[in-house]
Structure formats: C-alpha cells, structure tokens
Amino acid sequence: xxxxxxxxIAQGIAKALDIEDALVVQFPPAxxxxxxxxxxxxxxxxxGDFSAAAEAIDLARYTWxxxxxxxxxxxxxxxxxxxxxxxxxxxxVLADEPFEELRSALFQVTSGxxxxxxxxxxxPVLDRLVWLSGAPHGGAQGTVCRLSTREVQxxxxxxxxxxxxxxxxxxxxxxxxxxxxxTNIFRKLHVATRAGAVRVxxxxxxxxxxxxxxx
Length: 215
Description:
alpha/beta, Arc Repressor Mutant, subunit A, 9 helices, globular
C-alpha cells in the first residue's frame, strides 16, 4: 500500500517502484481504507504533514495488525526523524537520499529488518537505545527484561540494519555469539523479528534512564 499527500504522487511512486496491484491512498485517510483482494504486507508512507502521516499509519495498523511501515521523503531534521521513530515505524528514507535507496529500503523492511536513516542522522536514534541497560520497561506483551551491555550493543547494530556477520565484525565476536545475543534479545523483548526488537527498544515518550555500563 502506498499513502501520499496526493493520489498523483502516490500513484507515481507506486509505478516507479513497479509495485503490482498497489493500494494507493491519499491522506489524511478516510475512516476506513478500501478492502484489497489480499491484505498488504507493507505500508509505504510518503511524508507530507507528520500529523496526517501518523494518522494514516495508525489506521493502517488498526486495519492490518502487524503491517510493516516504511516512511519515505522525510526531511533531514532530527525532530521529525525521532517523531517517526517514536511512532514505531519499521524504516525511514530521507528526502535527500537517492531513489534507489527507497527500493533497497522496501526490501529490507519486507524482510523484517529495521531500515535506519543514514549514519549522519542515526546517532540520536541509537542514543535512545541506552535506556535498555536501565530499569525494566513494561510493554503491551509483559515486562521487558533488562538487557546486558553486550545485548544493547548488538541491538544497536540491528538498528543500523547490519547482518549477523557485519555485527560480529564490528563487535569483534563470533557470528554464532551474535546469533545467541539476538535470540536472547527476542526472548527478553517478547518479539519475533529484528524490526520488532528495534521498535520495542525505542521508548515512546519520557526521559531515558542513565546508561549503566555494566559488563
């Protein structure tokens, strides 16, 4: 599904990306989305007005629980990027990124990975992961257990969209060790995918606890 500030823009993007049988919708959305023959697996939201985009995202998730959300065309502003992160989207593509990055992001998100913004804007996002080393966090699916320092480091690599091998190289540990940490992260956060782990690992609101550098 492609949601944009105008039908013309949304249809143009869907055609350029060769998305077959795309459900194209203009936001702000109506009370209900049209019913497609097959439930969409992903919602591509073209940034216009954040409030309207957030409303469209909420309605998509209400209509199709578990649907992945990728936001594209986001201005390179820290406040907007963090606003979308707090909205628990599965990926962000900035307005100044090449069009081919959008194609790549679609593949990442539909594969269950979190597609982060470019590295120059990633630090504020990763900083918000630090709270996981602090007090337990109550989630919708139960209490989220405290992560170890190494597990937080692995989660940061997941937020960068890295593979297990890339994370292992960056952290100078074995690939199997990374896999073990990912399994523990999933168990502690009550999630089943990398994107889900990153979403749960980002607080929706409030100040994060100070980082406790435990081993």
